[in-house]
Amino acid sequence: MTTLSLILSQKGRDVVTTAPHRTVREVAKLLHDKAIGAVVVAGADGIVLGIFSERDVVKVLALGGAALDDSVSRHMTSRVVTATEDAGVLQLMERMTEGRFRHIPVVEGGRLKGLVSIGDLVKFRIAEIETERQAMLDYIGTA
After folding, report:
1. Any stretches that span the bilayer, and where are they (predicted)?
2. What is the pLDDT of residue 80?
3. What is the CATH number for 119?
4. How many CA atoms lie within 13 A of 44 on its CB side?
């Protein structure tokens, strides 16, 4: 079973985070400037408090312009689904699809260790399938 540990070792463990007191406006600009879909809201101790994504920006915009000056903690998703590095890729893909979310913080002891997106998982799985396909072709070719 392929786990998140392998994916993180290949893609890296850097995660863009923000403090809960930052404004929605600041965090939306951060999403734009970094060209990312989500930012993890974490405490100074590295504990995941929430996640703020493009979907959350849309929800805030529906409330009106004044909400852009609210703290991000007021509008973040605070019930964050997390995973550990030993979580299986296929199970997480299924969980993310069922839950209709695109980012999972990877934690150990509650502390942030990485972040994976559904795109990361799909990309990895496609590469894995291609490797299996090539191995099968090589096997057939030698038979």
Report:
1. none
2. 93
3. 3.10.580.10
4. 1
